[in-house]
Design brief:
Region (Disordered): 45-123
Biased composition (Polar residues): 83-123
Helix content: 25-40%
Number of strands: 13
Shape: globular
Largest sheet: 9 strands, mixed
Radius of gyration: 41 Å
Biased composition (Low complexity): 45-66
InterPro entries: AB_hydrolase_fold
Strand content: 5-15%
Distance between the termini: 79 Å
């Protein structure tokens, strides 16, 4: 005999309960084989042993086919319930055997079913339980020399006797006693044989559960990937928060009556400062012409364009929603169009750091998306209740332009986005539903947040960043909307215009590039005076003075949100200064209702999508 786990040498190290269990299994199988063996092997619904082996990782290919005691069980029985007793039953009153496949085997995995009135079923269950006990207390070494597990045929009386003889010869019942017990079993009469169902028919009628069985891990993965959480509806502001907004709304109403600002839903003013504004900027452009700043420069680099081939079906807020949210950051108590505050505990989620200049608010679109809007320099009417923040905001602007480090306001902006994201996920939103926006310094902060966190959005009139990543986010979900001639947009190295004041221009990059693709709007000729005045910077004090004045006036002509609203076809809501600026050039009215992918596609087709 080959030495294996059943050899006497190993038997000495086995616990006493293992030997007693082996003795019990031998006697139990002998009894079961003498009284109920023919019925048990004829039941196609039996899943006790095969199901148990499937649940414990044991292959079910070692079936009754190897014993010669019945037909092979169908392969699809592997998916039936583990540890389930046989459904074979013998009615005590008629004395006939009835067997039926279990129709609910694949629908209930909670607990095994029992039939207390079926004597053969109880015997079959005892054998199954003993087999399970044997598996639970089996030694850690393999049951066979080849490392394979015991097959069902190994539990036959002959095989059991061999194992008992190897472990404890004195505990083995006499072979003659086993044979006599088997031979004493009542033989099946023709009437009883006729009462047995046709095995082939039963097998064909058995439900094929294994063919369509899905592993539990696959089911969990499917639920995880297909289940979409529905965000909670925006919560209303608390009464105290509504009262806190009243002063700002009163101020905005007064400014709109005086034609200082204008809003789509505000009162109309009888005053009109637009003619005065237009006359002043017309005079300044005339001065630029007299100084030769409007002439085409000798060398005029052309930034590289991009071709957008991505999908245009992505669900994002529209250009109008982004711009109005960015504009609302300047307005004390202003609300951006149809957006609602993102409320936590009765208050809109917002953050302001007077020392660093960062200020942001979170809004919810009607489509269930969140826009985090960061405030630009000076803060607009917010200065009426927080004037000191303008100083720290100007310092943050200066640090980005004249150094190679990001200001603390940028890090505060990232922290605020993380706070909003955590609160949004708690309310059922996804990270894909969170976007950032801002104008000027706010657009800078939005671009930095997008670079560091991967969220999408639109930044308006922001300069380049001091931090770079491979590709500079050209294929990301963040877009910069820049106006030709706006000084702030040219404080970068991926747009030519302010060199040598700015570091060297590098097509599609440099030391201070934008993050995300660039969509240019307005009149391309508006950038010519910047290039010519920057060339005068090295000619002496007069040239330097002309450069400083020119970049400041061009900043006022093209930088304010009202100019972007004009070129994008957006109706400003809340209020913006309607007359300060020089809104000249084409109007892309169809951009207002576009999503980010649609805007990229439209700008790509128009040749105004620039690679950062």
């Amino acid at each position: 005999m080959v030495k294996n786990s059943c050899c006497p040498e190993n038997a000495r190290r086995m616990p006493l309960r293992y030997g007693l269990s082996i003795m019990a299994i031998g006697v139990g199988i002998g009894i079961a084989g003498a009284s109920g063996h023919p019925v048990a092997w004829a039941a196609p619904g039996t899943t006790g042993s095969s199901g148990s082996s499937a649940s414990s990782g044991q292959s079910s290919s070692q079936s009754s086919a190897g014993t010669g005691r019945g037909p092979k069980k169908p392969a699809d029985r592997r998916g039936t319930r583990p540890n389930r007793p046989s459904t074979s039953a013998k009615t005590p009153d008629s004395g006939t055997d009835t067997t039926a496949p279990d129709a609910t085997a694949s629908n209930d995995d909670s607990s095994p079913e029992t039939q207390p009135n079926s004597t053969p079923l109880q015997q079959e269950s005892i054998a199954d339980i003993v087999r399970e006990k044997l598996r639970d207390i089996k030694p850690s070494i393999p049951a066979r020399a080849g490392g394979t597990r015991l097959a069902k045929s190994d539990f036959s009386p002959g095989a059991t006797a061999k194992r008992l003889a190897a472990i404890s010869p004195s505990a083995v019942p006499d072979r003659e006693e086993i044979r006599s017990a088997v031979s004493s079993a009542p033989a099946l009469t023709p009437e009883r044989k006729a009462a047995l169902p046709d095995i082939t028919a039963v097998i064909r009628a058995a439900p094929k559960t294994a063919a369509n069985a899905i592993p539990l891990t696959a089911k969990v993965a499917a639920v995880t990937t297909t289940t979409k959480t529905t965000p909670n509806p925006p919560e209303p502001l608390s009464p105290i928060a509504k009262i806190a907004e009243l002063p700002g709304r009163i101020v905005n109403t007064v400014l709109q009556v005086l034609d200082i600002t204008v809003s789509a839903n505000g009162p109309k003013s009888p005053i009109n400062f637009a003619p005065v504004n237009d006359a002043l900027f017309a005079a300044f452009r005339e001065i630029e012409g007299q100084l030769g700043l409007t002439k085409t420069p000798a060398v005029q680099p052309v930034p590289p364009t991009m071709t957008y081939n991505g999908p245009t079906t992505g669900k994002t807020p529209t250009v109008s929603q982004f711009l109005n949210a960015a504009t609302a950051a300047y307005v004390w108590g202003g609300a951006p169009g149809d957006l609602k505050p993102f409320v936590v505990n009765g208050k809109q989620m917002e953050s302001t750091n007077v020392l660093t200049g960062m200020s942001g608010k979170a809004w919810v679109t009607p489509e269930g998306q969140i826009i985090i809007a960061y405030q630009g320099t000076t803060g607009g009417t917010n200065l009426l209740h927080n004037p000191l923040i303008a100083i720290s905001q100007v310092i943050a602007d200066t640090q980005v332009i004249f150094t190679d480090t990001p200001p603390q306001a940028f890090f505060d902006a990232v922290d605020f986005e993380q706070e909003v994201e955590a609160a949004a996920i708690a309310q059922g939103y996804r990270k894909e539903d969170i976007f950032v926006t801002g104008h000027s310094l706010g657009g800078w902060e939005a671009a930095y947040v997008a670079q560091q966190t991967g969220v999408g959005g639109i930044g308006f009139e922001s300069p380049g960043l001091n931090t770079t990543v491979p590709g500079n986010g050209a294929d990301s979900g963040f877009v910069n909307v820049l106006t030709y001639g706006d000084t702030a947009a040219y404080f970068s190295t991926d747009l030519p215009g302010l060199q040598p004041f700015m570091p060297e221009y590098v097509p599609g990059g440099g030391s201070k590039p934008h993050y995300g693709s660039i969509v240019m709007i307005g009149n391309p000729d508006a950038a010519i005076p910047l290039m010519n005045s920057a060339a005068l910077l090295s000619t002496g004090p007069i040239g330097g003075a002309i450069f400083v004045v020119d970049i400041l006036v061009n900043f006022l002509q093209y930088h304010l949100p009202g100019v972007q609203a004009y070129h994008l076809g957006v109706t400003p809501d809340p209020g913006v200064v309607p007359w300060l600026g020089n809104a000249s050039g084409p109007v892309n009215a169809d951009y207002a209702d576009m999503t980010i992918p649609e805007l990229q596609k439209a700008a790509s087709d128009a040749g105004t999508l620039i690679r950062p």
